[in-house]
Amino acid sequence: MEILNIEATRSTPKIYLDSKSHIHEISGESYPEDSFEFYKSVFDWLDEYLPTLNGTKAVFNFDILYFNSSSSKIFMDMFDLFERCSVEQNIVINWFYDEDNEAALEYGEDFEEDLAQVEFNLVEKEKV
Amino acid sequence: MDSFYELREIFQKEGIIFSYSGILSHSLMESMGESLKCKLIDDDINPSQQRKLFSVFVEKIQNIINYSQERTPKDAMDSSMAGGIITVGNKDEKYYLVGVNKIDNSSIDVIKEKIEHINSLDKDGLKKLYKEARRAGPSTENSKGAGIGFIEIARKAILPLEYHFDKIDEQYSYFLLKTNV
Fold first, then answer.
1. How far apart are CA B58 and CA A72, in angstroms?
2. In this complex, how many residue pairs, one in chain A and one in chain B, have their CB atoms less than 8 Å apart?
């Protein structure tokens, strides 16, 4: 379960989960044909990984340009999972957005409002 | 030949950018979506509106693929291809999207209630409804998220959502949803 590496496609994001570095990335577009099916391997990986943390800080970087409504449910499920784990573990979620993408910021704020325990940061991307 | 010219005139009159009627699939949606993005950039529409239109486009097509009663292969409700119509246009300086698909008549009341409720809400009300729908039960294999799909469309749209049911027979109707962005 060391690394989960899924390449991005037109409608699915890049997934890079690394149990050694504890820095994880989900980036790109998310509007899969079947969100449940697509993200199943991510949840399976997390179910194995999260209990092994033992207090080590784990950072999840989300840089999503666009996501559909069923992905939104999936992300909420994932953040809820991190929220539950935050009681014992040290989990950080960084939600990246472009300055001119007000939707991404707004959705980030939506998630932040619904999470009490886990550290959730809205991070404006630097202009390249 | 004449009817094709008439069709072309209707397209021009309605400001139709593109219109597709037929079998919809995920990969077709991906390709159409890319063309749509290029066209919108070319039209110089502001990025925020581009994203809203693209979002409504994806939600509506995915809704049609998941719920249309016109399946390919026929009667295969779990197939990944379904029949419908998707049209994107610009009229009176507003972009709009129209989606049409076949539904079972038993769904009419539920759909109507959902849309009327959505149309009655303000921005905060929609946000609240969206958050409730997002948390409504775990995402499961069978859940296709129709509840949240309409709300997502509404959040991007200039309300009200316009809709119409056109009876085919005792069992089916066409459901049309028009979204102004």
1. 14
2. 63
